[in-house]
């Protein structure tokens, strides 16, 4: 099974509106052509689909995703408006596909740039992992780890320690995917890969102490291949496909 993860498209109500100098509408369209060529079974947008939370931005994103002809889903980032998103396409929490469970978490906090899962959602995550031990992939917007871009940690995931503690109690979570930091980054936390993806929109400098855009860094998306226990080789493999303008 092949999954594509896209993140941080930052579309606006006005399709001509640029995000930090990037024509995000045109960028998303050209990336969709590359995504379609990969023939994914599932496409996941991991938040900041919209920059302004407008219904028009979600409708345009959904049109592009529908045109792929495969299953797709999305979850909210700090720039999104979850209720408006859900009017266009309901938010999902768990997807079962090909012997895997994909858990989609909502780290959105109204009016804030940082994220939080909250005690209720963390309890649901724990119950889900305790009750279903099929190989699991978790996706959320905010990285659940400290990153090199110090300013990002100020607006990171508030309850990352509680999230880490839950993951530590189960050995069937094979990776965590996130967005928010607008660049590719992979680390291992307690043996579990935590992977972010380049933004569809502008990229941020990975190791800058303060906010900084890398105007030359290309956009990209992540390909995640998930196998079954019956297939030889790793259960999960992943790489980023860069899409220069
Ligand atoms: Fe973003």
From TrEMBL:
Membrane-spanning ranges: none
Matching CDD domains: MPP_GpdQ
Superkingdom of this protein's organism: Bacteria
Protein name, UniProt field: Icc protein
GO MF term list: cyclic-nucleotide phosphodiesterase activity; metal ion binding
PANTHER family listed in its UniProt record: CYCLIC NUCLEOTIDE PHOSPHODIESTERASE CBUA0032-RELATED, PHOSPHOHYDROLASE
InterPro entries: Calcineurin-like_PHP (IPR004843), CNP_phosphodiesterase-III (IPR050884), GpdQ/CpdA-like (IPR026575), Metallo-depent_PP-like (IPR029052)
Similarity field: Belongs to the cyclic nucleotide phosphodiesterase class-III family.
Lineage, top ranks: Bacteria, Pseudomonadati, Pseudomonadota, Gammaproteobacteria, Oceanospirillales
Domain Calcineurin-like phosphoesterase residues, every copy: 1-183
Keyword NAD (UniProt): no
Record key words, sorted: Hydrolase, Iron, Metal-binding
Species of the source: Kushneria indalinina DSM 14324
């Amino acid at each position: 099974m092949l999954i594509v993860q896209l993140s941080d498209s930052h579309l606006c109500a006005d399709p001509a509106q640029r995000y930090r100098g990037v024509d995000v509408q045109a960028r998303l369209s050209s990336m969709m052509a590359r995504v379609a060529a990969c023939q994914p079974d599932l496409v996941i947008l991991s938040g900041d689909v919209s920059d302004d939370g407008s219904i028009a931005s979600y409708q345009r994103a959904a049109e592009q995703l529908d045109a792929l002809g495969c299953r797709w889903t999305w979850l909210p980032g700090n720039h999104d408006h979850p209720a408006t998103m859900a009017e266009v396409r309901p938010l999902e929490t768990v997807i079962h596909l090909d012997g895997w469970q994909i858990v989609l978490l909502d780290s959105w906090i109204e009016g804030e740039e940082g994220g939080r899962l909250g005690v209720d959602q963390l309890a649901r995550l724990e119950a889900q992992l305790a009750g279903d031990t099929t190989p699991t992939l978790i996706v959320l917007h905010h990285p659940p780890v400290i990153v090199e871009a110090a300013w990002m940690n100020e607006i990171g995931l508030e309850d990352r320690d509680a999230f880490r503690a839950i993951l530590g109690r189960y050995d069937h979570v094979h990776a965590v995917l996130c967005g928010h930091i607008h660049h590719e980054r992979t680390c291992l936390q307690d043996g579990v890969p935590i992977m972010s993806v380049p933004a569809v929109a502008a990229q941020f400098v990975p190791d800058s102490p303060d906010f900084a855009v890398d105007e030359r860094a290309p956009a990209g998306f992540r390909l995640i291949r998930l196998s079954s226990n019956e297939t030889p080789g790793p259960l999960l493999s992943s790489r980023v496909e860069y899409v220069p303008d």
